[in-house]
């Protein structure tokens, strides 16, 4: 099967609204024929990422409003949503600081899994994960538009629609099975313990500062390292920010983690009827790291545009190919890592076989990697 992927390029060559990226996005949404996917009165989740304090390269509210207005035009009832990454009231403030609120996007902005990230439903996943906690607002919605900011990712290598489904629509924890049924279960298939190397540690306290749940503390003047094993979500931020490698996190193998992403994405999609989910990949402000980190680096590739499809595998395959064809930007992490024309920049940055998530998603029947690219 060959799936259609619509492409709205970012480059503007004529000074007309319809030639702008927002104008082309409107044309892309028309090409997706929303009325064939969403019925009058359908509650449709517009799943995006709210970002983090300091991470400012999320999909802008201006574009979210274009999506919302297109959904309203076909009679759907959209709401903009994300799962909790820090306590919910704080996360709503983060969204508001990014400009994502009811006034800017034209629809309610809600937390998909409640104020504490525990409002979710266990859904059967695959052999690696068993079950995952799908956020209730997404689980119960009649339809969804997955709006993904394409970027690098320290664990996945590449983050787009599959990662947005897998880690963005699944809660961090469940009331009964905790982090093992949440995002942490993907990061750490197993126990996922943290280990501290006192000899390497320089007591910069970045791990303590970056922890979203304040699980980490140092005692006796830095002689003892403590983390709350029950509360910890196994997000791995502490390991990422440690400049000396003093924090080690027992993680899944690279391939198991990427396969787990596809399993979780399948579990999320299993809660929708066929044809009720569409995908928009924003290849803009393509930075090297996830939007959940407390900062944003400069883009490593030039803005390329927006891709849209009813097939999550096809939209990811097209996104990956466009990224591989793009030239790295100077004075960025790409240049710092020695990437040049013709290099796979995300592979150079993270050295992860990121395509495994795509291959596994196709094996699980989520879509086809064969696509036809149609320019808008």
Provide an overview of this structure.
The chain contains 14 helices and 16 strands. The protein has an eight-stranded mixed beta sheet, with helices on both faces. It has helices at 21-31, 61-73, 88-97, 102-105, 136-139, 161-166, 183-187, 206-210, 237-241, 254-269, 312-325, 333-336, 345-350, 355-363, and strands at residues 3-9, 43-47, 77-82, 109-111, 120-124, 131-135, 143-149, 151-153, 157-159, 194-196, 216-219, 224-227, 247-249, 277-283, 305-309, 371-375. The chain folds into two domains: 3-184 and 253-375, Rossmann fold; 193-249, 2-Layer Sandwich (Alpha-Beta Plaits), CATH 3.30.70. The chain has 376 residues and is of the alpha/beta class. The chain is globular and about 60 Å long.
Topology overview:
Blueprint: E1 3-9, H1 21-31, E2 43-47, H2 61-73, E3 77-82, H3 88-97, H4 102-105, E4 109-111, E5 120-124, E6 131-135, H5 136-139, E7 143-149, E8 151-153, E9 157-159, H6 161-166, H7 183-187, E10 194-196, H8 206-210, E11 216-219, E12 224-227, H9 237-241, E13 247-249, H10 254-269, E14 277-283, E15 305-309, H11 312-325, H12 333-336, H13 345-350, H14 355-363, E16 371-375
Parallel strand pairs: 1-16, 2-3, 2-7, 3-4, 7-14
Antiparallel strand pairs: 1-15, 5-6, 8-9, 10-13, 11-12, 14-15
Helix pairs in contact: 1-2, 10-14, 11-14
CATH architecture designation of the largest domain = 3-Layer(aba) Sandwich
Number of domains: 2
What is the C-alpha radius of gyration, as a whole number of Å?
A: 20 Å
What is the name of the CATH topology of the largest domain?
Answer: Rossmann fold
Q: Structural class given helices, strands, pairing?
A: alpha/beta
User: In percent, how much strand structure appears in the residues?
Assistant: 15-25%
The neighbouring-strand order within the major sheet is: 4-3-2-7-14-15-1-16
Rounded mean pLDDT is 93
Number of strands: 16
What coarse outline follows from CA principal-axis ratios? Answer: globular
Helical amount: 25-40%
The CATH top-level class label of the largest domain: Alpha Beta
**What is the tally of helical segments?**
14
Query: What kind of sheet is the major sheet?
Result: 8 strands, mixed
Distance between the termini: 22 Å
Element pattern in H and E? EHEHEHHEEEHEEEHHEHEEHEHEEHHHHE
The low-confidence parts are none
